[in-house]
Specification:
The chain is α+β, with helices and mostly antiparallel strands. Helices cover 39% and strands 25% of the residues. It contains six helices and eight strands. Strands 1-7-8-4-3-5 form a six-stranded antiparallel sheet. Strands 2-6 form a two-stranded antiparallel sheet. Strand 7 and strand 8 form a beta hairpin. The two termini are 16 Å apart.
């Protein structure tokens, strides 16, 4: 059972200094300190400390003799950083994060269950418009996962 469930989409902007407001509903579940790292789909991913520690535990279980495992660790952990909310409920997205996710100004924050994704708005819309939800539902149903 999932302890923290993030859901919903929120449109925001990143200011000239790279600061982003985290929606109040997310702030309540994230706490004062949390982790931001690169996401697999050219977005950023935000983990509450509890979920981050679960991920670290899982990563510690995989064999480091496999190159793909080492590469995944580098990808997920190498640029990860703890962030704190400022007094206005904002976090600072450093230049490397903004460049990776191609974030300039408009962003979409998306609750994805155990984590939050931060997308450049145009990239998010492009990705969502390209989805074939019926095909995805068929695959999930075939795997016995559909509800």
């Amino acid at each position: 059972m999932m302890a923290i469930g993030f859901m919903g989409e929120y449109n925001h902007t990143v200011d000239a200094k790279g600061r982003l407001i985290i929606p109040a509903t997310y702030r309540e579940k994230l706490g004062e300190r949390f982790v931001v790292t690169k996401g697999i789909d050219d977005c950023l991913v935000v983990y509450a400390m509890e979920q981050w520690e679960e991920l670290l535990e899982k990563l510690s279980q995989i064999s480091m003799t496999r190159q793909t495992n080492r590469n995944f660790n580098r990808f997920m952990l190498g640029k990860a950083g703890e962030v704190e909310l400022d007094s206005h409920g904002r976090i600072l997205l450093n230049t490397a994060f903004r460049e990776y996710a191609q974030i300039e100004k408009d962003v979409v924050l998306v609750g994805a269950g155990k984590y939050i994704e931060i997308w450049a708005k145009d990239k998010y819309e492009e990705m969502m418009n390209g989805l074939d939800i019926s095909a995805i539902a068929d695959e999930l149903d075939a795997a016995g996962i559909m509800i």
